[in-house]
Design brief:
Blueprint (H helix, E strand, L loop, with lengths): L1 H13 L4 H5 L20 H47 L7
């Protein structure tokens, strides 16, 4: 019964985001500076320049989100391995890898 509770807790933990772990490997992009300046665009060049910065930012956000997804999956896989090894030991098996 204790094993079942532990497994249930461990599996529920795998559903949580691994943000703290992921932040070590995934770098959140900073929004472009041009959107924080006051007023409107002074000319066509400033508009096109800021638009380009925003497009680059959005592409970086996509890469960041993909990275977080990958880290979450990897952390979940590792947690499941820990549960499997624990269950192996709890069954009394000698070789638990």
């Amino acid at each position: 019964m204790r094993i079942a509770k532990f497994v249930a807790i461990a599996l529920s933990l795998t559903m949580l985001s691994s943000s703290a772990h992921a932040i070590l490997f995934c770098s959140e992009p900073s929004p472009p500076y041009c959107i924080d300046s006051y007023g409107t665009f002074d000319n066509d060049w400033s508009f096109r320049s800021c638009k380009s910065e925003v497009e680059n930012y959005l592409a970086n956000v996509e890469r960041y989100l993909d990275c977080l997804d990958s880290e979450k999956l990897e952390t979940s896989r590792k947690a499941n391995e820990v549960v499997e090894r624990f269950n192996c030991k709890a069954r009394g098996d000698s070789f638990c890898f």
